[in-house]
Amino acid sequence: MTFNTKQRAVIERWIGRAAPLQGVYFRSVEYRYMDPKDVLSGTGTRKYGGRFAPKGVRAVYLSVTDSGASKEVTARKSRLGGTAQISTGKYPRVVYAVAVDLQKTLDLSDLGISLVGKAVVKACLALDSLEPSMELARELQAEGIQALLFPSVVGGDNNLVVYRADCDRKALALQNEKEVIEQAKRIAAKYP
Which of 117, 133, 143, 149 could form a disulfide with 113 if both were Cys (CB 3.0 to 4.6 A apart)? Predict the structure, then answer.
């Protein structure tokens, strides 16, 4: 998909409305990826891509709630594998609380979206194709947008994708790192 002239004009207006974003968001990871040094690296997205993040882009996905973060991971695994490969009830996960401090964020739910804008958003949130969202991400990143808040396609809470290349190290910070490490030590001690 290539955005037409009217759609590009809408996207340019959106970029002009980028605003700071601060708060705590959540990231769900499998135990094998729970090392705090890796949780916010964006390495997985660089390798595989995702909604609003083309392959090659280091991005971190977060959710407004911890349950939303886990729900998104389950849905993504289903999309990649064709069937649900994991369920939150079957496989253990770690949910990190992440403090966010960004200067240029777009919120797709707060743009006063026109009919043309709604068409762009609908294409970007389509279940059968990630290409429109990746195309939009390329344009946003070219303009220095650090993150995009967008509705979950699996229902429920909003998600946030943060483009690591456009942020300094202090833009994202784990809030519950010590608690997660202590819990992992307690679990490991039970199984010598």
Answer: 117
Q: Are 151 and 109 in contact, with CB atoms under 8 Å apart?
A: yes
CATH topology of domain 5-185: Diphtheria Toxin; domain 1 (3.90.175)
Cβ burial of 191 (10 Å; 0-12, 13-18, 19+) is exposed
Whole-angstrom CA distances from 107 to 80, 161, 163, 172 are 26, 11, 14, 18
User: What phi and psi values does residue 64 have, to the nearest 5 degrees?
Assistant: -65, -30
pTM of the complete model: 0.84
Angle made by CA atoms 142, 160, 92, in degrees to the nearest 5: 130
- The token duo for 152 is 């979950």
Identity of the residue numbered 23: G
Tens-level pLDDT at each residue, the chain (192 residues): 689 999 999 999 999 999 999 999 999 887 777 888 889 999 989 999 999 999 999 999 999 875 555 555 555 455 445 555 555 445 567 889 999 999 999 998 776 678 898 889 889 999 889 999 999 999 999 999 999 999 888 777 889 999 999 899 899 999 988 888 887 788 778 876
Residue extents of the structural domains in the chain:
5-185
DSSP secondary structure letter of residue 170:
G
- Write the single-letter amino acid at 15: I
